[in-house]
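The aim of this short unit is practical: by the end, you should be able to scan a pair of folded records and say something sensible about each. We start with the first protein, listed as its amino acid sequence and then its structure tokens.
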Amino acid sequence: MGRKRKGRDISGWLVIDKPAGPTSTAVVNKVRWALDAKKAGHAGTLDPEATGVLAVALGEATKTVPYITDALKSYVFTVTFGAATNTDDAEGEVIATSDLRPSDDEIEAALPDFVGDIMQIPPQFSAVKIDGERAYKLARDGEEVEIAARPLFVEALTLLERPDPDHAVLELVCGKGGYVRSIARDLGEALGCKGHVKELRRVWSGPFDVDEATPFSVFDVDEKSPDLDSHIQPLAIGLADLPQLRATDQGFARLKNGNPGQVLGTAEYGEEVWASYQGTPVAVGIYRAGELHPSRVFNL
């Protein structure tokens, strides 16, 4: 029998404004420690030097993480033209240079090729697994591996600002699995001038916006404190993209045991929905003829 994890049974979401420096895992571990939470995870990794929205799920909210990772996300990032790096960002080693600099019109003309359903090759320094090993570990050992292109949905890629000939600020709105570093790299290649990411900030992820995020410094403390609970948002926010139905008394009794239960409300047959009982989330599942067939049950 595994050792029971210590900590408080608290559930909900924390939206952290991650600073440059710590890894996403380090932020989650610090938040969990500061809250003395039994369980925590995050919905989408940010590179150590990236900033912005890091959605941290606590307790039963970890069951809703897929709905946030699958949602659209927005990134504002600065591309440096004239140099390619082995990491596709400013932390890496320069591996190629160019004296060419694109005009604003040339950048605008290139962006449509990166919108819609595209294929994207992740960076050599990424968490993609190659024969069971993380690509970044192989890259650190000096191995250059071939990483297969992966599908990515890009809703929008927009030029926001051109501070100087060497840089451009863009906004990317994309689905799950996107690498902003790859966008910068491939845009530089398309423009014939090379490129890499200088700065990157995630400004929103699904229902979570950086303007409503809590600075990580609030949780980067030396003492645990239940006063930090005031920053926790309801678990149901992670289900914002799904229709909500209400469980009947009998339906609630069945759903909490993992069985199909009666629900009230309107949904399409076969649609994924979630049910609440007296305002508390009960389960997520498939709607069929007045019943919810649960795939996830919340123990709240």
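Turning to the second protein, read its sequence before its tokens, just as you did above.
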Amino acid sequence: MTRKKIIVLDTETAPTYASPKVNPNAMRTYDIGYIVREKATGRVLERRSFVVAEVFFNVELMRNAYYANKLPMYREGIQRGEWVVDTFARIREQLFADIAAYNVREVWAYNAIFDRCALNATTNALSRGMVKDYLAGSGAEWRDIWRFADNITGKCAYGEWAVANGYQTDTGTPQTGAEHVTRYLYDDGFIEAHTALEDVMIESRILTECLTYHVKQPTTCGCGYLAAQRWAKRHGYYIRKVRR
């Protein structure tokens, strides 16, 4: 029996303007990492790690890059072959080729709205408006690990752990990012790498954990904090806006 294949993808980005507020629609993607894996088993069939030439070598733009302190590490990694430097269009062509070769219908990401918007914005900018949707024509659709992970982050055990460790937002809601979920599940001292392929590997592991619950999988993206927020409200940790 043929096992279903999926892609798990992550991006690293640079905003087009400096701002304390994150706007995924104003991003340019400089690092794209993804794996093709068997959905049920987690077995990895392909690993891809790319640096987007048009963005990474734009000195002005990369001054605003998130985790810009890692740029020397990227340059060293490129020399060692850890990233393939290519144009945004050819990287997209490789992704589409992998989608076709493995009959992929689902592209999963943690907080998929961010990656989707960042890739769409980069696609639109670099194609001069000719293409606006990164996955258009691929036959695949976005799926959100963050949304799926509320089966973990909405549980009492997770909420109590987050509160005990001080992992809460300014609303009192338990933190639900991939770094905190990984700390809870596997390694309390874990620190996210914030390089695309390395982050994909931990996000794929969270997805495998979510699949063990055998519950309905989300088809919409975003709002992966809602179950944790409901827990915070039930247990008196939620801080309403008027009190913040």
